Amino acid sequence: MVRASQRRKTAAMIPIAPTDHDVLIVVDVQTDFLPGGALAVPDGDAVIPPINALIQRFAHVVLTQDWHTPGHISFASSHAGKTPFQMIELAYGDQVLWPDHCVQGTRGAALSDALEASKAELVIRKGFHPEVDSYSAFMEADRNTPTGLAGYFKSRGFTRVFVCGLATDYCVGWTAIDARAAGFDSLVIEDACRAIDSNGSLAKAWAAMAGGGVQRIMAEGVV
Length: 223
Ligand code: VGL
Ligand code: ZN
Fold this sequence. Notes:
It is a single chain. The chain is α/β, with parallel strands linked by helices. The chain has a single domain (28-69, 99-221), classed as Rossmann fold (3-Layer(aba) Sandwich). It is 24% helix and 20% strand. α4 runs parallel beside α5 (201-211). The model has no long low-confidence stretch (mean pLDDT 95).
């Protein structure tokens, strides 16, 4: 008798060798999300060694870069009387308010120097519309404005995306869900991600990813 949990583990452990149709998306490994940064993700720098190893295994690597205007609508400082991590209602729906982070051209917005990402074929910036946030690399938070990444991947012949980086419960999770929604197979490499985990956001994100058809693997499963 094989229990479902055992079957899942076994399936997840079948190693995957990336092909020319696979792409690794490295999400937001930027100074502001690393220790000492404006929106530091706990243990965020732990993703860098596994991501550097993963980058070697993929023929195709794409990076994302959170890239906000000064005074961006997602910043608590843009809303009188509000503090970071509070939720507000905007025209497009609920929005978590953040400390000012990843402002265009600042040091905090720079990709980490420790990331060995020179082979990346594309750096896609997101969150640059002053009035709309964008966790996902595919679709902005109004759920209506595409970034163009799905079309780029389709033009390049990519069919499967592997997502890693920061943060599991926001930009990684939304990117993985939207990848699947756009018709790609989508896998999150769990141990090459770290989470913010405010107000139960991590558990919610894993549930949403599972519901959205995103697979969850470990870095050792990519050979
Ligand atoms: C992110 C919150 C705000 C992320 C970006 O990269 O996960 N989270 N902006
Ligand atoms: Zn942001």
